[in-house]
Design a protein that fits this description.
The chain is an alpha/beta fold. It contains 6 helices and 14 strands. The strands form 4 sheets. Strands 1-14-13-2-3-7-6-12 form an 8-stranded mixed beta sheet, sandwiched between helices. Strands 4-5 form a two-stranded antiparallel ribbon.
Length: 264
């Protein structure tokens, strides 16, 4: 495989070229349900893609699968849950079920329910993740140093205890909120030529959380190139597959532009 490359083809074809156990991290949002014209809906070769991902992922590697559900005649498809459970059935761990919270303007939901404002981010791992760099940007009420103490047991004896402290900043929750749209999702205008980009910061936060510098990050549905750009920015190797030629060219233009900015 030629690394740091966008492959204008289906991800299945790209992964057929890969040896086993090559990818450290996948961050992607698949073309779920009928939300855009691509390779069908829930049956978009999903099972083949899932099995291929399991083969190419390194042991203890992580797949971040960002997905929602379409509502058809008042009935949500449940595609997200079906996909997560299938990943589990072929050997992935469902390490965390996270929420991507965004302004309520998305394409999911309907006018008779509460306004949809989130998608799922399933964090799947091939074994327990080898890299867990939890982001600590949630402010605790106060910081506290560790100390020693005792606890009186029912038999009257004293048990010595050592209590850990905590810092002013704690790990964030598994609900991540981002603004979307122009001026928020991407730092360059060219990215917005794609109709369904996710925020650069979302991709970056997952890359920082589940990988280290020089790890290999792959996006099987690259779109406008957000995942590859954030991988490049954070000193990771990257690969991307994009079956749509126009989106592939868009991603290449964006990568070339940002590669110059990064090197400069």
């Amino acid at each position: 495989m030629k690394l740091n490359t966008i492959y204008n083809e289906s991800c299945v074809k790209t992964m057929e070229k890969m040896p086993d156990n090559i990818i450290d991290l996948v961050v992607t949002s698949p073309p779920y349900d009928h939300m855009r014209e691509y390779d069908g809906n829930f049956t978009f070769s999903f099972k083949t893609i899932a099995k291929s991902l399991f083969r190419v992922m390194k042991l203890r590697g992580v797949v971040v699968w960002v997905v929602g559900d379409q509502t058809i005649k008042g009935d949500e498809t449940g595609s997200s849950f079906k996909q997560a459970l299938y990943f589990k059935s072929i050997g992935f761990n469902l390490f965390d079920t996270m929420i991507y919270l965004k302004p309520p303007r998305g394409a999911v939901g309907n006018n008779k329910t509460y306004w949809q404002s989130f998608e799922y981010m399933f964090v799947l791992s091939k074994g327990l993740p080898k890299t867990i760099n939890l982001i600590r940007d949630r402010e605790n009420k106060e910081s506290r140093r560790g100390d020693n103490g005792t606890k009186r047991l029912p038999n009257g004896s004293l048990l010595k205890l050592s209590r850990g402290g905590y810092t002013k900043m704690g790990r964030r929750t598994n609900v991540w909120e981002y603004n979307t749209g122009k001026g928020h999702s991407a730092t360059d205008r060219i990215a917005h030529k794609h109709p369904a980009i996710f925020p650069e910061k979302l991709a970056e936060d997952h890359i920082l959380s589940w990988s280290n510098p020089n790890d290999l990050v792959y996006d099987p549905f690259l779109g406008s190139g957000t995942t590859s750009y954030m991988a490049l920015k954070n000193d990771r190797k990257w690969l991307g597959s994009e079956i749509n030629e126009d989106y592939c060219l868009l991603a290449e233009q964006r990568m070339n532009k940002n590669l110059i900015n990064t090197e400069g």
